[in-house]
Amino acid sequence: MSKLVQIVSSRRTWAWPYVLFLGLFVVLPLILVGVYAFTDIDGNFTLRNFAKFFTHSEAIQTFFYSVMIAVFNTVLCLLIGYPAAYIMAQEDFKTPKVMAMLFILPMWINFLLRTVATVELFNMFGLPLGEGALLFGLCYDYLPFMIYPIYNTLQKMDNSLVEAAQDLGASRWQSFWKVIVPLSMPGVYSGIVMVFMPTVSTFAIAELLTHNNIKLFGSLIQDYITTTDLLNYGAVLSLVLLIIIGLTSFFGDHDDKGEGGLV
Amino acid sequence: MRFKLGFLGFLGLLCLLVTPASAQSNLTYNVRTGVTGNVTLLTDFPEVVAGEKINITVQVDPLDSVEIDGLDYVFADRAVADIDQFGDSIYSYTDESEVTWTVWRSHKPIKNRNLRVLVGNAQQTFENYLITNTTPAGRGTGWIWWLFAAILLAAVLAYGGFQIYQRRAEKKLSSVEQEILRRKRMGKRRHYASQAYLWLLLIVLYAPIALIAVFSFTKSKILGNWTGFSMELYANLFTGKADAGLNSAIWYTVVIALIAAVCSTILGTLAAIGIYNMRARARKAVSLLNSVPMINPDIITGISLFLLFVALGMSQGLATVCIAHVVFCTPYVVLSVLPRLSRMNPNTYEAALDLGATPAQALRMVMIPELWPGMLSGFILALTLSVDDFGVTFFTKGSGGLETLSTFIYSDARKGGLTPELRPLFTIILLVMLVALIIINIRNNKQEEK
């Protein structure tokens, strides 16, 4: 009895339920993805699912297309988002602080509803739905994820460094490229990760924005995983996506703590 | 003349005879697998009023079970109804033999439009399918472009004129003064350009949302079709007259968010206290594990949990959705409680125990009052994450008809329409958020002043 009391009162043990929970609902499911990928419908070990993936030209093409779209979208978000974050963080531009909040506010509106509204907007202006609409919609949905981390790092940046550079004779342009950009890299990294990962795995936005004419990898996975007999093949596709995600988050490790930056 | 009339009459009769027949015509299709089958149009030529909804049903038959790689399955492919010049395609995945599309949008008058049905790679056009003689309310949208162009032109002209006027005045000044003015002007120009950039971005960012908000004040079924000011949609929303599916979706969203937020707050707070008191190595390991659900995109979390529930043979429904939401909410609670812990005096808990409190009492009376702000922000964060989630819910909700707002919008949009009452709902959410944001901002400013 006294031992039990000791265990409970040692606060270290209070995390055990959560660790158990994580093991059961995070680690085990991820392992299961691998297990399903290597088994057939009866649960026997097989490599046929993988063989199918490498000969399934539609899946390969969709995969590369999705990665391309995701890269393109990330670059687009960076090109549009960096100047915005820079302007907001610069003191001499005197941007009201509410501005930064206004950029995050749309994220509280359901992204599907925003996407549907974007489709309606395109209809209203008589613009065709397709690749252009897809890129616009993706950029629109994920731009705040790029702006916010960059804004955060730029705001925390010590401004005297820029002043020092200018005192030492650097032009505006030089001090931007040699001081501000390198210092804001952690924010850029985490912004890239936060935009790239959801874009590469998105599945509903593309359907709505292109009237299902363009299929991204996420939609493909969704198709297979929800078809009972093709679940194992779907698991292979998910595994491929997981590898991409793993690589990306490894890339994002440069950033010390950009996570939860949206809080 | 008489001959011509007779000929036309003959043609008309021929059309009458021919058209219904073509509605029954078959279409052979090749799906990805190379199966062939027939598509029959079941609905007769309907007469529609623009903006009203019609149902078109197509029978896809036979849906062979196909053998691919030794696997036997009924192949489901998409069927698309593309109503010519509607500008809309209505698509639907099918593994049923009948597909029904609901068409309820068109901004233009529809007259004798053609219906094109695409299944797999094949298509079949049914000519003169939709017939209507009414013009929908609202005007065309071409004028918007002209308005834009006019505003832009006016702005450019005004700016140019102003500049010329200023330069003329400056010519009288000395060169030093001119240089100073030039520098000032450059700074100002940079300032205005940067502000204009931000505002432009905000306008683009808010345009779709504004569209929803504006059209929540008209009762038209179609987003983008203004039929006069009306508060009917708001009234419908609050008196429960809205679509039954929407009502249950709102209900489920709230219930799931509350359950998930409460559970994850309790679990996450305990976990944070535990993690904080762990030895360095264990702490690092658990923190890493804790970050996995945050890094995983929702599709991966959703699919992996879906596979778990399939493997365990759990029937999917409310319980599985709640578990899934706790999975991705708890890490954020842990992260918002941890900073409070490091700010707190670590010895107060032990002091309480020494003074005779049980661990539960010490937790309730010493720890929780200190951790409260962190727990609250974690709770609110969990609520918003849960309400906003789509990917995870989609894979764990099962097929029992459970829908949250996100999945409801998704299935709604796939059918080619949007339940009108969603517009006032999200307008209200936006306003509440805006007010909350302003309050937080004012409070922060006050704290800064102190």
Average pLDDT level of chain A: 82
| Rg over alpha carbons of chain A | 23 Å
From the 3D coordinates, which CATH architecture of the domain at 243-418 in chain B would you assign?
Orthogonal Bundle
Highest CATH level, the class of the domain at 243-418 in chain B = Mainly Alpha
Please give the alpha-carbon distance between the first and last residues of chain B: 93 Å
SS content category of chain A: mainly alpha
Under CATH, the homologous superfamily of the domain at 243-418 in chain B reads MetI-like
Could you tell me the CATH topology label of the domain at 243-418 in chain B.
MetI-like fold
- CATH superfamily caption of the largest domain in chain A: MetI-like
Number of domains of chain A: 2
SSE order of chain B, as H and E?
Answer: HEEEEEEEEEEHHHHHHHHHHHH
Overall geometry of chain A: globular
Q: Considering residues with a beta carbon less than 8 A from a beta carbon on another chain, report the largest interface and each chain's count.
A: A-B, 98 and 105 residues
Q: In percent, how helical is the residue content of chain A?
A: over 70%
Low-confidence stretches of chain B at least 5 residues in length (pLDDT < 50)? 11-37, 48-53, 61-80, 82-97, 102-113, 130-140
